[in-house]
């Protein structure tokens, strides 16, 4: 008979998955390392060796706090996931995008570790292929969870660090776009988490943009929240701030904004007016 209740065994598994060693957990429960090991093996938990903790991802590249760290944080909050994995010591971090934007996933792979495998997965729902990268790393997972809420992310997403333009560009590339509207271009970001949408709206308002937060229902009857910007000069300035000195972004979205920017520039030159935004 096991010396631990089921509740205690689940707690041991949770501590081990969070990065605690068998020795550390044994000290907490005033028992032997071997007793903790038996609990883990009995529950089909993969025992990690000291040389396998980090596996293919041997470091935390997010600690650099650079453009890519911020951009990929924003992108993971929208198009990424941290999936529970009971057979491993840490959970699986995954980023997947439509194949047409696969070069961004490749950049993410190189950012994390060039040893990771790039996966190509068929998505029946949209009848298209997705490019994906997944890996486990306790340090990376801990960093991400301190920056944002990844639990039930679709409905409860929240960011814990101040938004900047690199983070916003990642969020936008995940769940945003530019929508043509009567010869103009509207900006939008959508999501199911009202808290997250309000955080983005606050950042944009603080930077002087006129934003609108609207609620719409999708085909399943669930609420979708949209942050929208319509004013021409706001859309032009927003693109300038998002893409200024940027080295990573979804090209098709940038090119749509750039075409609009250049058309407005040509219009103002022909009309003799001066653009508020200069290249």
Topology:
Blueprint: H1 6-17, H2 22-28, H3 33-42, H4 67-79, E1 80-83, E2 92-98, H5 102-112, E3 119-123, E4 128-136, H6 138-147, E5 148-149, H7 153-156, E6 158-159, H8 165-175, E7 176-181, E8 184-191, H9 194-206, E9 212-217, E10 223-229, H10 232-243, H11 251-271
Antiparallel strand pairs: 1-2, 2-4, 3-4, 5-6, 7-8, 8-10, 9-10
Helix pairs in contact: 2-3, 4-8, 10-11
Protein described:
The chain has 279 residues and is an alpha+beta fold. The chain has helices spanning 6-17, 22-28, 33-42, 67-79, 102-112, 138-147, 153-156, 165-175, 194-206, 232-243, 251-271, and strands at 80-83, 92-98, 119-123, 128-136, 148-149, 158-159, 176-181, 184-191, 212-217, 223-229. A hairpin with a 4-residue loop joins strand 3 (119-123) and strand 4 (128-136).
């Amino acid at each position: 008979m096991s010396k631990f209740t089921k509740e205690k065994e689940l707690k041991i598994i949770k501590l081990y998955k969070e990065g605690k060693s068998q020795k550390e957990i044994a000290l907490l429960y005033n028992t032997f390392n071997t007793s903790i090991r038996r609990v883990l093996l009995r529950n089909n938990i993969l025992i990690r060796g000291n040389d396998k903790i980090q596996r293919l991802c041997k470091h935390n590249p997010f600690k650099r706090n650079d453009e890519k760290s911020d951009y990929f944080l924003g992108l993971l909050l929208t198009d990424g996931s941290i999936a529970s994995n009971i057979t491993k010591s840490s959970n699986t971090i995954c980023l997947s995008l439509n194949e047409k934007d696969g070069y961004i996933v490749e950049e993410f792979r190189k950012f994390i570790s060039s040893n990771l495998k790039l996966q190509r997965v068929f998505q029946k729902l949209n009848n298209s292929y997705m490019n994906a990268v997944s890996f486990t790393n306790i340090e990376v997972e801990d960093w991400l969870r301190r920056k944002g809420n990844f639990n039930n992310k679709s409905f409860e997403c929240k960011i814990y660090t101040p938004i900047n333009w690199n983070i916003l560009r990642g969020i936008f590339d995940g769940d945003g776009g530019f929508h043509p509207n009567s010869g103009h271009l509207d900006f939008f970001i959508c999501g199911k988490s009202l808290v997250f949408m309000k955080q983005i709206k606050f950042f944009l308002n603080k930077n002087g943009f006129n934003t609108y937060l609207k609620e719409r229902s999708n085909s399943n009857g669930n609420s979708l929240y949209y942050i929208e910007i319509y004013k021409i000069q706001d859309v032009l300035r927003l693109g300038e701030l998002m893409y200024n000195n940027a080295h990573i972004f979804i090209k098709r979205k940038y090119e749509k904004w750039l075409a609009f920017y250049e058309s407005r520039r040509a219009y103002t030159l022909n009309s003799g007016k001066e653009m508020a935004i200069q290249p």
